[in-house]
Amino acid sequence: MQSLIDALAERPDVLRLACLTPTDVDLVALKERFAAWYVVNSGALAYIDSRRDLLLDPFGTRPWAKAALVIAFAPRPERESPLRQLPLARPGLPAALIAPYALHEDYHRTGQRMLAEIADWLTAQAGNDADALFEACVDTKPVLEKLLAEQAGIGQRAPNSLLRIPPWGCQAHLAVLFTSLALPSLILPQPRDTLCQSCQACLEACPNRALTASGLDVRLCRAWVANEKRGPLSPAEQLLLGDSLFGCPFCTMACPDASAEPGLLAVDPEAILAMSNAALKKIIAGTALQHLGPNQLKRNAKAVIENQRMQD
Asked: 17, 23, 226, 286: which has the highest count of C-beta atoms within 10 A?
């Protein structure tokens, strides 16, 4: 494990690394934390509803896996994000906002590439185990990355339900690499920082009051409405969307640890509605907005226009 740590030490994108073995995972705590969240949010995320058993027993549903690397990694900045080709907002007219993290390389791609490189390195080191199995998880597989990372000592749960990793705040991304290689356990010392116990900045920054001391109500989250809610928006959901075209960064930006990121990108929702789906699809290809697709982006653009006209 030390050789892996040494190999990754010079990578600026790897912020923290831990390794869990099957005996390291506290399944009771995992289930309790998930159950508390699920009481409030059941039905909000269909892919979680359909994968509960897989989520709650990460090694039991992967009997071949002997270890799981848990990694916090930094966003990969893109100087010329394709999203900057979108029509910019015009003074005095409706403006739709894109969260800053979308202006980086899509974190799914960043994390998958990083895990592939680590898997290649481990395979080369394994020698006789060159046929080792791997499963890369970057918010694309049934894995509770945040809860596993917390158990591995990567960070601590912030009031906004994200993992806070001093000194990077809640802006780091998480990845998990399951492997059939028998890697040694590496659990980091639990952070002793008490900032979150006395700081309410993320709760106060939430425009929809989706955050409380007891947790997150996903259905009130502006990012959920913009990114995850499929189909038409109800009148209440439209109001919750506010002026967001994609995502909502306010709780992460409010964290005292938050690093400087690109600012919110304000685009012209009327111009987006006027674009052909083919043109819009070409611009968002390979970005975080590809997950939504042109139709959902236009749904959001239309709602933003109506919301801002109601305010005039």
From this structure: 226
Structural domain spans, the chain = 2-311
- Mean pLDDT throughout 26-48? 91
Specify the pairing of strand 67-73 against strand 173-179.
antiparallel
Out of 129, 139, 193, 217, pick the active-site residue: 139
**Environment class of 261 (CB within 10 Å of its CB; exposed 0-12, middle 13-18, buried 19+):** middle
Query: What contacts 252, CB < 8 A, 6 or more positions away?
Result: 160, 162, 169, 170, 171, 202, 258
| Per-residue model confidence (pLDDT) at position 14 | 93
pLDDT at position 129, please?
64
pLDDT grade for 257, boundaries at 50, 70 and 90: confident
Q: What is the pLDDT of residues 65-102, one digit of tens each?
A: 999 999 999 999 887 899 999 999 999 999 999 999 99
**26 counts as catalytic:** no
Whole-Å CA distances, 78 to 103, 238, 272: 7, 31, 22
Distance CA(301)–CA(174), nearest Å, equals 30
From CA 285, how far away is CA 135, in angstroms rounded?
Answer: 25
